[in-house]
Amino acid sequence: MASDVGAHSLLRSVWFYVYRSVRWCWIPSWLPSWCPTSQRQLQIAEDKMLRYVGSAFSKQHISISNGNLLWTLSFNSKAEKNKTPMVLLHGFGGGVGIWAQNLDALCQHHPVFALDMLGFGQSSRPIFPADAQEAEDQFVESIEEWRAQVGLESMVLLGHNLGGYLAVSYSIKYPGRVKHIILAEPWGFPTRLDTEEADRPIPVWIKALGAMFTPFNPLAGLRLVGPLGPYLVQILRPDFKKKFFSMFSDNTVPDYIYHLNVQSPSGETAFKNMTVCGWAKRPMLQRMDQLQAKIPLTIIYGSRSSIDSTQVFTIKEMRPHSHVEVITIRGAGHYVYADQPEDFNHQVLQACDKLE
Fold first, then answer.
1. Considering the domain boundaries, does residue 257 fall inside one?
2. Is residue 50 domain-resident?
């Protein structure tokens, strides 16, 4: 047992030393030429994703502190002026283009804003703190600074995956700015499960592999394969193309996903620092009691999702005097907004109408 621990510790030390040297010394110099991408190519890929959106919209960078910019789509809604603006927060590895099948429907009833969160898409990609709470706080503050710059008094926050986690975190800190939270397949709510059994010790070689790959960002492999990256996305994630088949018959979607995720891994690194083995280091369920009871909560899951929806019952128990509605969309997986976009759009608007 002692030798296992010693080997594990040594491998971690050696790998971290190599990783730090590689990361900060020679990777930045060859990465742009090695990966067939650029900021311009990302912009072109996003434009292709949005070319079938029929509603009028503007796009611009919104300035926040420290010279950072948040890329924003603003839709000129035909809805009544008293409708609360809806702000769309994408999930990990996403961007504004992933809402292509939702924007037209949603903006007919609400002013809609979609932004690339700090560290993702065409927004600035700063260095985030290594501490999980500090990284989360930087995300939250960027949203608040964006809100102030855009001039929104209050918002409906619709967040998918990581966006849902940050929507609740933001609402805990700035409750007066949030009229309604809609969580689509949220990440980061439950506490990590203890899956290690005492009578089934993990072999030292598995521990060693875990130590080797721990320092890497989740999507590092996509960048390391260089020119093979676009084909890798097409081969490993053909579902991305299928989700948008009604809009695109070519590789528009996998190309967009590729260019989103091979730029500087800023938000990706922040996400990694907020997780342990895929679980949130700061589970949101442990803080739901801090969310004001007056803020209504709508949670949307796909019936075919691998996300554990039983956490909803815990949320309901923690918010007995609050509006908590749970919606399941049949035939949808984790990317519920793209798997069944018409049903998703309808359910979102219906949930909002109940509370307006």
1. yes
2. yes
Average pLDDT, the chain: 86
Please, are residues 49 and 256 in contact by the beta-carbon 8 Å criterion?
Answer: yes
What is the predicted pLDDT for the residue at 221? 86
Q: Is residue 197 part of a domain?
A: no
Cα–Cα distance for residue pair 285/44, rounded to 1 Å: 39
CA 337 – CA 184 distance, rounded (Å): 8
For the chain, the domain total comes to: 1
Which residue type does 352 have? C
Identify the pLDDT of residue 79: 62
- The tokens 């839709």 sit on which residue? 75
Residues contacting 312, CB < 8 A, separation 6+: 299, 301, 324, 326
Nearest one of 152, 69, 170 to 116, comparing CA atoms: 69
pLDDT at 286: 95
Residue 302 in contact with residue 347, Cβ under 8 Å? no
Q: What is the pTM of this model?
A: 0.87
- Domain with residue 12: its CATH number is 3.40.50.1820
- Residue 226, sorted as left (phi over 0), alpha (psi -120 to 50) or beta, turns out to be left
Spatial CB neighbours of 147, under 8 Å, sequence gap ≥ 6: 87, 155, 177
- Collapsed DSSP state (helix, strand, coil) of residue 205: helix
The boundaries of the domain holding residue 312 are 2-191+203-355
- Interatomic CA distance for residues 67 and 235, integer angstroms: 38
Residue 196 placed within a domain: no
